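I'm curious: can you give me some protein's one-letter sequence along with its backbone structure tokens because I've never seen that pairing?
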Amino acid sequence: MTEPLDHVARIQREWARERPDVDVSPQGVIGRLHRLAGHLTEQLCLVYRRFGLGEGDFDVLAALRRAGPPFERAPGELAAFTMVTTGAMSKRIDRLERDGLVTRRPSEHDGRGRVVALTPAGRELIDRAFTEHMRNERRLLDELSPEEAAQLERLLASWLARLEPPVDTP
């Protein structure tokens, strides 16, 4: 008796039948990573929603919290950290400001610039949400053995390093 095929293996089998002239083996990795990303995002967003946040809101609050005291960054810096356009960042900041989680003020260093900062309520919320987020990530990763998780982390870090430029750290 053969093992049941997963979704990606079924697709590969169909393509191999229909297009035997094309190597479909990359789908084994890429297709599964894509499906896993969808499942993981769905599971991560469950936690964000429990705190009244979307994925983008969580990213902004987390980037501000990681900045350390006084928990502030320029909007352009936030956009770069969260990989969205400045226009998308403005909408996120507007929503978070309306909810009392961040404030905006003029920059002390650049008269035209602005600074976004966590409010005490924003810091308290992101601290609770981040703790739950890490519990959730641990739950998801516990599907693998510690050895499998370490091996996967090494492989993904190596692959990502080949596709992304290195991050400058101050």
